[in-house]
Design goal:
Number of strands: 8
Largest sheet: 4 strands, mixed
Distance between the termini: 42 Å
Strand content: 35-45%
Strand order of the largest sheet: 2-1-3-6
Helix content: 10-25%
């Protein structure tokens, strides 16, 4: 899923105000696609996340095409995944804009496991079930 976000100066306008991360197994399938106003020309852009569990993540450089894949590990709890995009002009001048993504209930039902761990367990269960069915026949 691509979430388009338009940033004008220090404000953001999104066509999707929130993203409910409700698909089990989701990992790096959500892409934020930014469009910046001319105020951002010449800036190097980074994004900082604060997870729903309150963990502040290290800055990540925005791609040259102004897109970034959202790591599934950022959906660590039900709540709000906050982000701030910073534009630096190379001197002390910095501009920024912030937004939020909503993390829905489905990802909280993994018992504290990462999505990858959870889907690996589900896959193992499916394999074991098929082996049991085969052995029974």
């Amino acid at each position: 899923m691509i979430i388009p976000i338009n940033i004008v100066a220090n404000r953001k306008n999104t066509t999707t105000k929130s993203k409910l991360a409700g698909n089990l197994g989701e990992n790096e399938v959500t892409i934020l696609a930014f469009t910046f106003s001319d105020d951002w020309n010449g800036t190097s852009k980074t994004i900082v996340y604060k997870t729903p569990a309150g963990e502040l993540k290290l800055p990540v450089d925005l791609g040259v095409d102004n897109t970034i894949e959202v790591d599934g590990g950022l959906f660590d709890a039900v709540g709000t995944l906050s982000y701030t995009v910073y534009g630096s002009f190379g001197n002390d001048k910095v501009i920024n804009a912030s937004g939020e993504l909503l993390v829905g209930e489905a990802l909280a039902n993994t018992g504290g496991l990462t999505i990858t761990e959870f889907t690996d367990i589900i896959g193992s269960c499916n394999t074991a079930t098929q082996e049991a069915i085969t052995a029974k026949d």
